[in-house]
Amino acid sequence: MNTTHLNNKFARMGARVKFQSPPVMRPRLRPRMSSLDIQEDRRGEYFDITLQSAAEPLVLDLQPDDRHLLLLIREAEEKHKFLCGHDERHWFVAAIPEKAPVGTVRQAKEALKPHLVQVAQSEKRVANKSRNRRKNAAFIRQGEWFFLPVPEQPQAGMLILQNEPLTRGNGGKPHWADYCIRTGGETVLVSNRYRSGLSHIQYQRLIEKNSNARNWNWRTMQRNPEVYVKGRIRHPDHKTILLPDWHRVVMNTENQSRAMRNVAFLD
């Protein structure tokens, strides 16, 4: 596959890209889908893309000044779109939900906003030019997390946790909040082998099949809870933000994409 055109597109937004050949699969195994990642070498970060033999990549939109592009990969009967760009200090890749009809970088950014964020920016009448800033009247964003101000303070007696992680459950580096309240959600058991969590019934079935699974360092967490934070929000790849009042936490919509189907919001 001639990747010169793609190399030029990434270079125009100031990025490097390397293309890898897919690993040789045994005949009976189903071929894996193409993958995108960020890697680092002596020259710094670069986009690492593995394309399967039948994959057809195409850059739908490029915004060099904004350092973003929208990449489409056609593969078999599926189409996946990825927003590739630079956020604060690092390059990133974000999978776009397949149900979102996007064809531009701006549309991709909007598609990554959850419903609560879109409602908030409409209610606050945030101007189009301000909707993709990391801070506006509707929200503050740090990476994949949006923080929405809430009009009411938490009820007295609710448990306030300190120095709590916010994680998608995919093994990435967590964001840390000085103060956190969580409510509702589904109680699940999580280990390194089951990062999206198992219900108690699923856990019991696993133990019945494999008694050694008891030793997999399980911990109890809440899946998809309502989460509220205040104070400092810290992450090594992002500038620390300060929330003097309580804000509701919502994650972007990557977990709605089949390309990111193993991602879950765990707190």
Quick recap:
This protein folds into 2 domains: 4-112, no CATH class; 140-260, no CATH class. The protein is 13% helix and 43% strand.
Distance between the termini: 42 Å
What's the arrangement of strands in the largest beta sheet?
Answer: 8-9-16-15-11-10
Helix content: 10-25%
Total count of strands: 16
Poorly predicted ranges: 26-31, 261-267
Number of helices: 4
Order of helices and strands: HEEEEEEEHHEEEEEEHEEE
Category from helices, strands and their pairing:
mainly beta
Rg over CA atoms, rounded to whole Å, is: 20 Å
Give the DSSP E fraction (strand runs of 2 or more residues).
Answer: 35-45%
**Overall average pLDDT:** 88
Shape: globular
Total discrete domains:
2
> Tell me about the biggest sheet?
6 strands, antiparallel
Please, could you describe this protein's structure?
The protein is mainly beta and 267 residues long. It folds into two domains: 4-112, no CATH class; 140-260, no CATH class. The chain has helices at 4-12, 105-111, 115-123, 200-209, and strands at 17-20, 35-41, 44-50, 56-63, 68-75, 78-87, 90-96, 140-142, 145-149, 161-166, 175-183, 186-191, 194-198, 219-223, 226-235, 238-251. A six-stranded antiparallel β-sheet has the order 8-9-16-15-11-10, with helices on one face. Strands 4-5-6-7 form a four-stranded antiparallel β-sheet, sandwiched between helices. The longest helix is centred in the last third of the chain and has 10 residues, at 200-209. The radius of gyration is 20 Å and the shape is globular.
